[in-house]
Amino acid sequence: MTRAAAALLAAHPAARAELDDRNRRWINYTPVPDRPGAGFDELSPPARKAAHRLLATALSEGAFAQAMAVIALEEVLDRREGGRRGRHSQDYRVIVFGTPGDDAWAWRFEGHHLSVSMTIAQGQVSPAPVFLGANPARVDVLGRAVLRPLGVEEDLGHELLRSLSPRAREAAVVAGVAPYDIRTSTQPRSRLITPAGVARSRLRLHERSLLDQLLTVYLSRLPDELAAALDPAGGEVHFAWEGPPQLGTAHYYRLQADDLVIEFDQTTADGNHAHSVLRRPRGEFGEDILADHHRSS
């Protein structure tokens, strides 16, 4: 990660900013016009490749493929909108905070429906928040999906809900209508959300297995060594659902553990606009490792 960030700055020095919370502690997956960082339309081909290689250090191969599909969907969305909003796949920005290799530094890769933030202190990486969205969430040919970046996340959530016993489902379904967006939104600090839903410890064996699979889908967005820092490791995990149970509708679910909030939603009535995020109320934006760094230094 350090080498990849240094290569980016060597190719495009203007991608660097100071390491301060005002600019660093930021997540915005909406199509805002004034996002901080170096825009892809400003980067030379070598710098653009360096930015992609930096992003790849933070994501597993599967999640990197999802991220590239999310970026490409900007052109599909632009076509659907008839070009009215001028969306394009170069409307993404990368920014490095501080100097790669220093005791503390950070970076972010962000644009519409994609936001990945990594903070590094004394050789440790704090990997959150990580947001992936998709609009359209599904592109079909003859009724079959040819592109569905968040299909696994959606299908497993539905499968888990369907598997629950009536009693467990009663505890899991906390609202009959889905929220307009994920609950944590673009807030610079997240928190655990109430009601928590149904606890994993209350589920039957096959229900626990599906919950564990769903949790693994999100943790496996990260390389194994980074995912290990977020794994609840035997702690309690809760599952909550809001909205109707049917595919193709606006619906929402979340998974929560001690220092982990995972959210997924389909935000439109036709169920074709998806958001998903992985956040850490006590550890995101490097709050955990930076606190240790400040104490030790």
Q: Secondary-structure blueprint of this entry?
A:
Layout: H1 2-11, E1 16-17, H2 21-24, E2 38-39, H3 45-58, H4 61-80, E3 92-97, E4 104-111, E5 114-121, E6 124-126, E7 130-134, E8 139-141, E9 144-147, H5 151-163, H6 166-172, E10 173-175, E11 198-199, H7 205-219, H8 224-227, E12 238-242, E13 251-257, E14 260-266, E15 274-279, H9 287-296
Parallel strand pairs: 1-3, 10-12
Antiparallel strand pairs: 2-3, 3-4, 4-5, 5-6, 5-7, 7-15, 8-9, 11-12, 12-13, 13-14, 14-15
Helix pairs in contact: 1-3, 5-7
Note down, in words, how this protein is organized:
This protein has about 300 residues and is of the alpha+beta class. Helix content is about 35%, strand content about 25%. It contains nine helices and 15 strands. The protein has helices at about 1-10, 20-25, 45-60, 60-80, 150-165, 165-170, 205-220, 225, 285-295; strands at about 15, 40, 90-95, 105-110, 115-120, 125, 130-135, 140, 145, 175, 200, 240, 250-255, 260-265, 275-280. The strands form two sheets. Strands 1, 2, 3, 4, 5, 6, 7, 10, 11, 12, 13, 14 and 15 form a 13-stranded mixed sheet that branches. Strands 8-9 form a two-stranded antiparallel ribbon. A hairpin with a 2-residue loop joins strand 13 (about 250-255) and strand 14 (about 260-265). Helix 1 (about 1-10) runs antiparallel to helix 3 and helix 5 packs antiparallel against helix 7. It is globular. The relative contact order is 0.15.
